[in-house]
Amino acid sequence: MALPDVVDPVPAAPEPPRQRGLLPLLLFANSAMMAVYMGVGSVLLPLQVAAIDPVNKVAVLGLIGGVSSIFATAFNPIAGALSDRSGRRGPWILGGALASLAALAFLGSVSTALLVGTAWCLVQATMNVFQAAVTAIVPDRIPAARRGTASALVGLGLPIGGTAGVLIASQTADHLRTGYLLFGALVAVAALLLTTLCRDVPRSAAAVEAAAAAAARPKGARLAAFLSSLSHHDFRWAFIGRALMVLGYFSVVGYQLYILDDHIALPAGLSAPAAMAVLTPVSMVAMALSTVLGGLLSDRWNRRKVFVGVSAALAGLVMAVPVVSPTWTGMLVFSALNGLAFGCFMAVDTALVTLVLPRAEDAARDMGVLNIANAGPQIIAPFVASAIVTGLGGYTPLFLAGGALSLIGALAILPIRGVR
């Protein structure tokens, strides 16, 4: 197996004893997280915004999504670095989840665009505290040889959580407050189970001391250290590829409810939220299949790049389907193919990234830096998407732009040298 050409200066800690139930609990935690992001972000929040300002809903949703993603981008790596320094993940998982419950309850109680935006920023901030600590558990506790399989299983959180989230949201579309409380409770329960049933494994003393020493440096040095992972060739290209893929994906998916409402010819009697409840399981079943197969096959063949590059290219090409056929059938085909592509990409790319992390003791911090490639493009995506839709006259240019970004993301995988 090809490894990054970086030597870890801190001796590796002994492998912790295998914890029964760890992966199922991580799957549940990731599923709950994705249920919030997909159910609230794709259905409840757009419905709430449309009810407040139906005329300017695209621009308002774009502004709220962009500003809130700044909070996601900031809080994820900060929380990751703090959990590195503390040496534990459990308190950050539980604290982030309970704070998210409170923020979602607040979101369900407000009725102006300003307060909706404020509340969603709080949800993004608190959910990213939860996410940073949960994400770090895989490089903390899973041996490198099993990362593809583990990442694939954990990656099932997207199809499972996404499907459950959209179904819950579609059923509570007329009762937003109830829907928000259900999502908050789901995350809180997942955090309680993970932190109670699977004990926290303290990080090595050397790793904690290294994190504490890094925190004691001057601010400029800390910022340089925080971003130092981007100076490593392979990690930098993995970051770029992830950022482009996520930007292309969320430029389109973030507006899917409005696309169904304003662009696609739906069958008579089928509302946009009901259509989302059909399309999402189609996409997520395909995503689950490709997530499992991609992770298992990438482990068996010891190949990551080919899976990541091909799936990113496929994600770009399928964006043309709703352009050629802006129909219900076209959207069904698009959802299935897009699910196949994105599921394989996220599962294998996550495994690839854990193999190019510069320093094992900074795993959560560096995974937090990588998560800037998840959250950062989501800052840009709503602004870009709303500008394209309003400035270029519809959703067809949006699909084309999203496809181009994914194709370029596929090319960004090629320069990675340390992983096959």
Model description:
- Residues 23-420 form the Major facilitator superfamily (MFS) profile domain.
- This is MFS transporter.
- GO terms for molecular function: transmembrane transporter activity.
- It is found in: Cell membrane.
- Its main location: membrane.
- The chain has 420 residues and is mostly helical.
- It starts with 21 loop residues before the first helix and ends in a 9-residue tail after the last helix.
- It is built from 17 helices and no strands.
- It has helices at residues 22-52, 57-86, 90-107, 113-141, 147-155, 157-171, 176-197, 205-215, 219-226, 233-253, 256-262, 272-301, 305-318, 321-324, 328-355, 363-392, 396-411.
- The chain has one domain: MFS general substrate transporter like domains (Growth Hormone, Chain: A), CATH 1.20.1250.
- It is globular, with a radius of gyration of 20 Å.
List keywords for this structure.
Growth Hormone, Chain: A, 17 helices, 420 residues
CATH architecture: Up-down Bundle
Q: Tally the helices: what do you get? A: 17
Number of domains: 1
Query: Main β-sheet: number of strands, strand sense, barrel status?
Result: none
How many β-strand stretches? 0
Radius of gyration, rounded?
A: 20 Å
Q: Average pLDDT value?
A: 82
- What do we call the CATH homologous superfamily? MFS general substrate transporter like domains
The end-to-end span amounts to 8 Å
What is the CATH class designation? Mainly Alpha
Poorly predicted runs:
1-14
How helix-rich are the residues, as a percent range? over 70%
Which descriptor suits the 3D outline?
globular
Oligomerization category of the chains in this entry: single chain
Category from helices, strands and their pairing: mainly alpha
SSE string, helix = H, strand = E?
Answer: HHHHHHHHHHHHHHHHH
Which strand-content bin applies to the residues?
under 5%
CATH fold-type name:
Growth Hormone, Chain: A
Domain Major facilitator superfamily (MFS) profile: 23-420
GO molecular function: transmembrane transporter activity
Subcellular location: Cell membrane
Protein name: MFS transporter
